[in-house]
Specification:
Elements (H helix, E strand, L loop, with lengths): L1 H23 L4 H30 L5 E5 L2 E5 L4 E5 L3 E6 L3 E6 L7 E5 L6 H14 L4
Antiparallel strand pairs: 1-2, 2-3, 4-5, 5-6
Length: 138
């Protein structure tokens, strides 16, 4: 959804800039500078946000996640987060990971379980079976 909104926003800015340029017969310096600024900010925002999250998570040290019939336990050097299956509304599986989604609609909380951290195909099947047993696929 965010990608769609950014695309629509940029398309509107391009349209506004083109209409203004065509009406005047030439490109206005201020309008062109503002247009370039908006393109840079809208295009660069996801990268800036990702870098900020990486810095925040990097300070926590290495994470270790345990998935069990009781729930998910994520431990770092400074904290431990225990989530029971009842707080999750479902999961989605991609080629490289399982993503568990929070039940709370106001808080975007998710747990990402990378499949490459597992050693065998049987481990992946066992991991896949736990969320399937306790939540729904979304």
């Amino acid at each position: 959804m965010g990608l769609l909104l950014r695309g629509v926003f940029l398309a509107l800015w391009v349209g506004q800039w083109l209409v203004g340029t065509l009406n005047r017969g030439s490109a206005d310096v201020v309008s062109t500078a503002l247009f370039r600024f908006v393109v840079l900010v809208v295009g660069g925002c996801p990268r800036l946000q990702a870098a900020q999250v990486q810095r925040l998570v990097g300070r926590q040290g290495e994470y270790r996640t345990t998935v069990s019939p009781a729930g998910i336990t994520a431990r770092s050097d400074y904290s431990t987060l225990i989530q029971k299956w009842s707080v999750l509304r479902g999961y989605r599986e991609t080629r490289g990971r399982l993503v568990l989604l929070s039940r709370d609609p106001d808080i975007v909380c998710l747990e990402v379980l990378p499949k490459h951290a597992l050693s065998t195909a049987e481990d992946i099947d066992r991991l896949r079976a736990l969320p399937a047993r306790h939540t729904t696929r979304v």
